[in-house]
Fold this protein.
Amino acid sequence: MLIERIYDEDLAQASYLIGCQANGTAVVVDGRRDIAVYQELAEKNGMKIVAVTETHIHADYLSGTRELAAATGAKIYVSGEGGPDWQYEFDGERLYDGDAITVGNISIQALHTPGHTPEHLSFLVTDGAFSDQPGYLLSGDFVFSGDLGRPDLLDEAAGGIDTRFEGAKQLFASLRDKFLTLPDYIQVHPAHGAGSACGKALGAVPSSTVGYERLYAWWGPYLAANDEQGFITELLDGQPDAHAYFGRMKRENREGPALLGERTPLTVLDTADVVKDLSADKVTFIDTRPNGEVHKGTVVRSLNVPAGKSVASYGAWVVNPETDQNPLVLLAKDQEAAQDMWDHLVRVGIDNVAGYVTSINGLPTFTPKLIQPEELDGFEAAMVLDVRNRSEHSAGHVPGSYQLSGGRAMWHLDELPAGGTIVSYCQSGVRNSVAASALRRAGYDVVELDGSYAAWDAWHNSRQSTKA
């Protein structure tokens, strides 16, 4: 048996290819939309992808289940659990608790493990060529290394009302009745790692075991004492802000994400054409440079989505394809870099990319306004906006600032002042540059706190030391 983990650092998301080496067939679990990685991995190992499935209706990225099935002819399997409100709306064989997918000598048994979502499945994997007993659990967003999937996302991002309490109870029951009934040696392979917003304290290690989690995870003592209420209170406390785009992911994943098919490689665009389209507001420019370079000058009304490991996350903060119809123009050093960025963007449903340019030379530019920490006290701002998470704001913030995380800002403009200047900040300036660029494009007068909270805190502490 072959188990390969494909990890996306951008979204801290893990998908899996499980293959039977005896007959050359494989299944992909929780795949993403840029599917070449799975096709190449299957080809490398002499396998054909014959089945695709997923643990649940995801909120943080668009599923590649339909994309892989269309490209390979694989059969789709999805959860049939969760009741009428949590049924997939596209064709595929429904899996219920105890059902199994067979791939060669491998059995992949569905376990209904609700809590993170009502329809959630985990997959218990048995390598029949080696043993008649299972050895592996693909736990999806149920159990992570050291943590659990959060049960409040349906409230935070999908329009639910107080579903978190029932979800937390379901998680407790799923742990008690399913997870902790498994042998301690079962290897646990979760769908997310550290940095994901699907939990609050995810470990960075890629896998665990049932026994290790039983002994050392934070929730172990609550289950051992059968303390459901204590578990619920601890689970729901301190969960991070949910990105607003999660609601769109939920809807599209339930309906079935649009098929991309064969994508034409991106090409470099003529600067004169880009200038013309920018002036007519027919395209949206994506400045992919670090915030320090953006602050020296950037394209008018551009969005800052820095290249690197967070393209999908930041892109979904500032581009809503349901309302933003303009194709994107990317700033990229070459075609390979542009293509890589596009791969990241399609993972969150940002598909409409016109092409790329390699420089901002010849394009209309401006210099974003900055304010130094020592200037803030005497500055007349309509709002000082903290775009960090709630927990960061609670740990320390600029006095009088208003917290609205960068991943939610563009969906909550009603919380911002209608006029005047907004001074915005994050921790170091990266997230702030992303959020500020979107607010400027939306018509707000935004001044960025240079160095953000880290710089302000250093200045404040220095001033306090001087006074002492």
User: Anything to note?
Assistant: The two ends are 67 Å apart (CA to CA).
